[in-house]
Amino acid sequence: MAETTSLSYQERRSALAAQPMDRLGLVTLLSGVYFLQIWTTYFFQDNSIWSSSLLAAMIAVSLVQCLLPRAVSLMGVNAAVFVLHFLAMSPVASNNQTTAFFFSLAIVAGGLLAFRRGDDREGVFRSIAGPGRWLLAIMYFYGIYHKINVDFLDPSVSCATVLYARLADVFGLENWRLGQYGAIYATFVIEGIAMVLLFSTRWKLVGMAIGIPFHVIIGWTGYAYYKDFSTVVLALYALFLPAAALRIGLDKMSAMMGGQAAALRAGRMALFGLAVSYVVLSMVKFGSLAITHESFTWVFTAYALNFYAFVLTCVRPAPGEQKPHAGWLAIIPILFFVNGLSPYLGLKTEGSIAMFSNLHTEGGETNHLITGVLPFGAGYQNDLVVPLGSNEPSFDAAYVGEGLALVRYSFDRILALNPGLVVEVAGPDGPVSTADGWENTYLAAGPLAHRFLLFKPVDFNRPKVCTH
Predict the structure, then answer these.
(1) Which of 142, 193, 290, 368 lies 20 to 30 Å from 341 when distance is taken between CA atoms?
(2) Which domain holds residue 445?
């Protein structure tokens, strides 16, 4: 009996000991950092449906996932809870959370499929990477396609110019016109190159070398706190790594540290040191563990630049490597693609990977140079309401003004969620009050619409100024 207990103890100790990082471990580590940012944000903002105790538990799970990246089961738990969280909070406007939701679906579905087949860790990685790789390609596709509009190409209002201005301020550059045009067209070039070359065995490193710095730099700006989005993108990039890259990295570290055991211990100490220093410095300097741009920039810099340095020094062509296949899990990237197509289907405009694109498709008009709402699309975006005033100053400040309107469904959603709100809107024969027998299309819609449809406020002023 004593021998069995001793063996069990040794097995547990071995499982917790530092071991070589593999591709699945790197994905586990980066996704853990992303989930840590998400759960911490909800914990301190107190705008989640979950209790603070559950959020605290998920923060703890995320921390352990970061410190023990071979604990893939923790990634599965985190991803499953996030899927439930996203569905419960839907409709969600956040594009980074929309991307993370589909990534989490790939983790859960791919992990369950691999478990059913009895796969090893490499098998689990390939099951997740099969659908997961296409998510990044689709994200880049819409990152390009949504921006093919006259206002994104106009430096006076382009979202690229807004971000460039922040970069100019952070890095002490001049916010000059040539740089603004450079920011606009560099977006197309960088995302296009990355989207294509990531799938090339020979040119994969070039795609990563060009694409990754883009996400590191926008994370540094602090604009709209891009670090969570950049982190989930880094996790998606990790799905493209060849297995040999991790072995090359271990060999390099072992040579530098004087042996594999020393390299593994150094890696473990670096993870713990980063976590402890973040907790200590955040409490001392900021008085809270709430993740902000100021408190998290140096942590983001540490893992983002180390990941980039690893890619540059360790990724090599691996022509004989088995490539992941999505199989029936291709339904996940297909749904992600359809979600991004929503503005052109006359459906939602929020959470459609159209962030910072200046895109406008409402009211039978579009600034897109190729596609507006397709002829067979739904009619939500064509049914608009022009608010004239209300009994709530906050509503008037947000939605009343020259050229401003709301999609009727979105307007009715606001009314349904704010029972005391009374709004006067423009009607064909003059002003109409919602207090006088107004038919609420949101309340008449089904549960699927309630969970899926979310629209940006409509602004017909031209040129269209950048919004989120």
Answers:
(1) 193
(2) 383-461
